[in-house]
Amino acid sequence: MGKLFLSKANVIRVQEIPTNVRLEVHIQPKDAKKGLNRLLGKDKTIIYFEKISILIDVFKYLSRMRPDLRGRLGVYFSTLTSQYKEAVMTKFVEGDIHILLATEAAGMGCDIPDVVQVIQYGFPRDIPSLVQRFGRAARDPKIQGFGILYAPPITKT
C-alpha cells in the first residue's frame, strides 16, 4: 500500500460491478474540463459530481465548447424543483438528453439500461458510492459499459 501513499489500509466489501462494465482511471490534466471533453463521445453518459458548483462550471464549459451537445446536456441535483428533475430524467431516458451531469440526487432509482458510460468527476465521498454509481452503466447485459474515475493527480506531501 506504500505506492498509494496510504499509511493504513482497510478492506471494504461492496456489491459487485457487472462483468460487462469495464473500469478505468483517467488522471485529470491541468485543464480538467478540457480533458473531460475528450472522454465524451456519442454514448449515453452520466457524469457524477460531489459539488453542485463544479457540476455547473463543467456544464457551462461543455455548453460553450461543444456546440454539438447543446440541448443534449442535462443537469440533476437536489436543489432543483421536482418537476424539473422529473422532466430532465424523462428526456434522458428517452434519449433527448445525451449526457447527464448529476450529483447523488440522481443515484437512487436510476435504472436506465442503455447508459454506456458513467464518469465520476473527482474522488467520491466513499467507495460504496463509487461502486453504486459505476453499477448504473450497462444495465442491459448485452452492451459493454464503462465506469471511469476521472481523478485529480495524487501528489505526495
UniProtKB/TrEMBL annotation:
Can you tell which superkingdom this protein's organism belongs to?
Eukaryota
Q: Which reaction(s) are listed as its catalytic activity?
A: Couples ATP hydrolysis with the unwinding of duplex DNA by translocating in the 3'-5' direction
Which InterPro entries did the record assign?
Helicase_C-like, P-loop_NTPase
Pfam families registered for this protein in UniProt: Helicase_C
**One GO cellular component term noted in the UniProt record for this chain:** cytoplasm
EC number(s) from the headed UniProt entry: 5.6.2.4
The answer on whether this UniProt entry bears the keyword Isomerase reads: yes
Any one GO molecular function term: 3'-5' DNA helicase activity
Q: Which SMART domains match?
A: HELICc
Q: Where does the Helicase C-terminal domain start and stop, copy by copy?
A: 35-157
Q: Which PROSITE patterns match?
A: HELICASE_CTER
Q: Could you provide one GO biological process annotation from this protein's UniProt record?
A: double-strand break repair via homologous recombination
List keywords of the entry alphabetically: ATP-binding, DNA-binding, Helicase, Hydrolase, Isomerase, Nucleotide-binding
> PANTHER family, per this entry?
ATP-DEPENDENT DNA HELICASE Q1, DNA HELICASE RECQ FAMILY MEMBER
The UniProt entry's sequence similarity note says: Belongs to the helicase family. RecQ subfamily.
> What protein does this entry describe?
DNA 3'-5' helicase
Gene behind this protein:
SGS1_2
